[in-house]
Design a protein that fits this description.
Elements (H helix, E strand, L loop, with lengths): L10 E6 L3 H14 L4 E6 L2 H11 L5 E4 L2 E2 L2 E2 L2 H9 L5 E5 L4 H9 L4 E4 L5 H40 L5 E5 L5 E4 L1 H7 L3 H4 L25 E2 L3 E6 L5 E13 L2 E10 L1 H45 L3 H25 L6 E3 H15 L6 E6 L4 E3 H22 L6 E10 L2 E8 L7 H7 L2 H12 L3 E7 L2 E9 L1
Parallel strand pairs: 1-2, 1-3, 3-6, 6-7, 15-17
Antiparallel strand pairs: 4-5, 8-9, 8-13, 10-12, 11-12, 12-13, 14-16, 17-18, 18-20, 19-20
Length: about 475
């Protein structure tokens, strides 16, 4: 009883056989075994087979090859075809019963060696099917092996060419298993010396807790830790260690990536030293400017005490307060940790304290300052301080005539990238404001010049209920 096998996919077989009867027998056998899944092509010579393969090699699943052909004898034809088309499996079907030849054919890559007259349809079909499956499996394994080798080579390149030292060590013994060339350069050991070391040998103090960090490593990536290592010659190295713990071939392994922080730390310390020197220099500059301005203010105050003309005395005191407002900025910076900004609340309080003292104002004029925690850069603080000085001076002189008490206020807020400042009083207002503005008095001129310097919008409102200066500029 013949056995038939139904294939799931049409197979194309190239029969290289010069005997028509044998070719016909192969056809009958294969049709009997798989009537719907086999398609045959024929060639009587190796030369013709090569010509057909040149056009149809992508379609051929297997080659059934006789070793005795008009243009080829023995393994010559097999070697010619397999060398040109190694991706196609070859089953040898020969009339020669030669064990040595069969052994050589199989060693050379033949999938099977059948002897004519000693097989049936099932054996022939099974040989061809196994040849195709075995060849496909070997091709897949070879492809996988290639990808594995390619992957290993890629990771080896990454490992070796990492710009930082990389070590691989056994967590149980701490023995160093592998390393890259940067580790050799940084630590000064060669590869053989490294592989004779344990990981804790790299620490400057092997007994420190840092040298036992391997005992607390968790699987996966561990947070970077900084430890002092040493070179082969004893030179200390500040190393930041990022560790990856995993299993490899049944062992607990740690991959340690080490970043040499020594030069960075030295650069950081150098920069900090330079910064401290510059801060000291800036403080000295602010101190000297403040002292010089205060000397000028003191000279003006001394001159005012000797002046007999009241108008001259008043002008000298006004100028003194203007200079003081400038020196106060430098005083605040000198006493501040931040040499680029002035705290507005402290600055305004001291500025008003000076004015109240210069003009002998007591508690009858209450001060209301609401500026929160705002700070201003030096280039903003100077003009703002001088504007407040001018407005406050005018309020002290003119706003409270005929009144026993009053209020002077300053409100500052920052909102949506804009600084808003309101400075004013609840005094009698400026009754002749239009006339004063047209005369361009020094105080008003200064306020307008300073607002332009700030690129600020200035608005002045005055009535019998008081005067308010509103300033807003991008901050």
């Amino acid at each position: 009883m013949s056995t038939r096998v139904v294939s799931s996919q049409m197979k194309q077989i190239l029969v290289v056989e010069d005997n028509p009867d044998d070719s016909r027998l192969f056809e009958l056998y294969l049709m009997e075994a798989d009537p719907s899944g086999i398609r045959l092509r024929y060639s009587a010579t190796v030369t013709n087979a090569m010509e057909q393969l040149e056009d149809y090699s992508d379609e051929i699943d297997c080659i059934l090859l006789d070793l005795s052909l008009p243009d080829s004898f023995g393994l010559h034809g097999f070697e010619t075809i397999s060398r040109a088309y190694p991706e196609i499996p070859i089953v040898i079907c020969s009339g020669t019963e030669d064990e040595n030849l069969a052994s050589e054919a199989l060693k050379a890559g033949g999938q099977d060696y059948l002897i004519k007259g000693r097989f049936d349809s099932l054996l022939l079909f099974r040989s061809i099917r196994y040849a195709i499956e075995r060849h496909d499996m070997l091709a897949k394994l070879e492809k996988q092996s290639y990808h594995i080798r390619e992957s290993e080579e890629r990771y080896r390149l990454i490992f070796e060419n990492n710009p930082h030292p990389v070590l691989l060590y056994d967590i149980a013994s701490e023995g160093i298993l592998d390393l890259n060339q940067e580790a050799e350069r940084v630590y000064g050991y060669n590869r053989r010396e490294f592989q004779g070391l344990q990981f804790h040998n790299l620490f400057a103090n092997p007994n420190s807790s840092g040298s036992n960090l391997f005992s607390i490593l968790k699987y996966g990536k561990n947070l970077p830790e900084t430890h002092v290592h040493k070179r082969k010659d004893g030179t200390p190295l500040l190393m930041e260690i990022t560790s990856y713990r995993f299993q490899l071939q049944g062992k607990e392994i740690v991959l340690a990536i080490l970043v040499d922080m020594t030069k960075w730390k030295q650069s950081e310390e150098s920069l900090l030293q330079s910064l401290r020197e510059k801060e000291a220099l800036l403080q000295e500059i602010h101190h000297r400017v403040k002292n010089n301005l205060q000397i000028m203010a003191s000279l003006l105050n001394l001159q005012a005490n000797y002046a007999k003309n009241k108008e001259v005395t008043r002008e000298l005191k006004d100028t003194e307060s203007r200079i003081y407002s400038m020196s106060l900025v430098h005083n605040e910076l000198y006493n501040s940790k931040n040499l680029s900004e002035v705290g507005l609340a402290s600055y305004v309080d001291k500025l008003l304290d000076n004015l109240w003292n210069v003009y002998g104002i007591g508690s009858e004029i209450r001060r209301a300052v609401e500026v929160g925690e705002l700070s201003l850069a030096v280039e903003k603080a100077l003009p703002i301080g001088m504007m407040i000085n001018e407005i406050a001076t005018n309020s002290i002189k003119y706003a409270y005539k005929g009144r026993k008490n009053g209020e002077f206020f300053i409100r500052g807020i920052y909102r949506n990238g804009v600084f808003f400042l309101e400075v004013g009083d609840n005094g009698v207002g400026i009754s002749d404001y239009a006339e004063i503005e047209s005369k361009e008095t020094l105080g008003f001129q200064l306020i307008q010049i300073l607002s332009k310097q700030l690129k600020a919008r200035l608005n002045i409102q005055t009535s019998a209920q008081g005067t308010k200066f509103s300033v807003e500029f991008p901050f």
